[in-house]
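Hi support team,

I submitted a single chain yesterday and got back a structure, but I'm not sure I'm reading the token output correctly. Could someone confirm the output below corresponds to the sequence I sent? I've pasted both exactly as they appear in my results page.

Thanks,
R.
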Amino acid sequence: MIAVVAAGLLLTGCGDGDGKTDSKPSKKPTPAAAQSKRPVKLSTEWIPKIDAATGSGTQGVCASVGVDRCAQHLTRIAEVVIDLEVAVDDADARARYPRSAKDIDKVSAASNRYATDGCLGDPAADLDGSPCFKYSADIMGGAASLTLDLGTDEMQADLDG
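Hi R., thanks for writing in. Yes, this is the structure output for that exact sequence:
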């Protein structure tokens, strides 16, 4: 039962996976420091983290989207994406990452719906017409898109910039 509650809380973005809430004050660069720095490049740090969350050894993990193993996998992905969203917001870089922001929003919405619609433990989650399969696909697909879109957004910003 605790795993069900924990997975639901994590999928809705209520925690960071270690039971702690983020109480650190955000560090905003001073205007002078922000102007002298090159724009933040998030792809270098975050693509490996996304790959680790979605990576090898997980093939078929969500063949049944209502089981605990799938929920744990989706939770790991959602946690990384939530952390990336915080990094984008802390860098005040949402405008620099428009494709990535759409992917983040897609994963966030799908993880919230997976939790609120009670997909975990639902015996009907895998039946035709159940939205749970779509939610899990949106979480996994959105994360996969992020690995491409982070770099694409950075290249586009460099070309435009």
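A quick pointer for reading it: The chain has six helices and no strands. Let us know if anything else looks off.

Best,
Support desk
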